[in-house]
Amino acid sequence: MFRLAHFSDPHLPSSWTPDTARDVVSKRALSRLAWRRKRSQHDPAVLALLTADVAAHAPDHIAVTGDLTNFSTPEEFERARTWLSTLGPADRVTVSPGNHDALVDRGLAARLERLRPWFGDTDGEAFPHVRRRGPVALVNLSTATPTPPALATGALGAAQLARLAAGLEAAAQAGLARVVMLHHPPVEGVVSRRKALDDAAALRAVLRDRGAELVLHGHGHESVFGALAGPVGPIPVLGAPSASSPGGRHAPAGWHAIEIEPGAGGPSIRVTVRGLDAAAGKLRELGRYVLLPLTSGIAA
Q: Is the bond preceding 128 in cis, omega lying within 30 degrees of 0?
């Protein structure tokens, strides 16, 4: 059995202020104005409670589906590296970058490079990264794309989608349970158009053709259960709320404890949902369910 913890959108604390004329008119400056209104929606103390709860359950691996930063500054990426190291070794934590992690294009490649140990196992490899962990293939996508002000859309691009199709096929042939990770939700209606994944239809087409056993995402700051069409049946899709949310405008912080059990007809996946109980000052179990195998083409 493989135990995977999934949470998203920690939005680590930031104190960035514009220090050049270019900064003053950048998307970062506009986002800073929005952040002054929204920062009460993210509480470092809540994030600390959640990560302690995750650690207490001792998962085999942790999946974080994006938005570690708020303004995508080099300083934030350094803080993100430090914070990620508290979760565990980089080979036991996988991160999918989010739209806030790619807020502006200038210097983006160098900033993302700082998180490369948490993206995949091979230096220089392009997304998607496929990390084999026991009976599981973690298929890590990047939807992080700089966008104009007022937009928080994402995109995968044709090249990444082509590599995804090949990666899913190879993982299936190896008999692995394929867990796809990305920041933006691939299911329609979870977020507004200005926050959506631009090529979600193309992603759904790849998944419909090649299949996957589970898809994990963030971005919507809500707990989401959905499904996408697969080659032999629906593919379950789980979205997590912000890991630092105290509740209010969005759902309180929560995470998924996922147990993946290999089987001849495909894996059985058990999910326990844990969420913040603000009154008690701790996280508790909110529910659990089993995703039955669908004989999805995984080799016996």
A: yes
Q: What is the distance between the alpha carbons of residues 152 and 155, in angstroms, rounded to a whole number?
A: 10
Structure tokens at 34: 């929005």
Q: Is 134 left (phi over 0), alpha (psi -120 to 50) or beta?
A: left
How is domain 2-291 classified at the architecture level of CATH?
4-Layer Sandwich (3.60)
Residue whose tokens read 């470092």: 44
C-beta pairs of 102-107 under 8 Å, 24+ apart in sequence: 102/72, 102/144, 102/145, 102/146, 103/27, 103/28, 103/31, 103/69, 103/70, 103/71, 103/72, 103/146, 104/26, 104/27, 104/28, 104/72, 104/146, 105/146, 107/74
Q: pTM of this prediction?
A: 0.91
Residue 122, CA distances (Å) to 97, 106, 116, 262 in order: 17, 25, 9, 26
Structural domain spans, the chain: 2-291
Q: Which two tokens stand for residue 76?
A: 């934030």
Query: 133: which strand partners?
Result: 136
Angstrom distance (rounded) from CA 25 to CA 33: 12
Contact status, residue 60 vs residue 136, Cβ threshold 8 Å: no
Return the DSSP state at 110. Answer: H
pLDDT tens figures, 199-222: 999 999 999 999 999 999 999 999
CB of 275 within 8 A of CB of 223?
yes
3-class state of residue 35 by DSSP: helix
Q: Is 61 exposed, middle or buried (0-12, 13-18, 19+ CB in 10 A)?
A: buried
CA distance 98 to 81: 15
What span, in angstroms and rounded, lies between the C-alpha atoms of 278 and 274? 13
Contact yes or no for 239/218 (Cβ under 8 A): yes
Rounded Cα–Cα distance for residues 162 and 164 (Å): 5
pLDDT tens for residues 242-288? 999 999 889 999 999 999 999 888 899 999 999 999 999 999 999 99
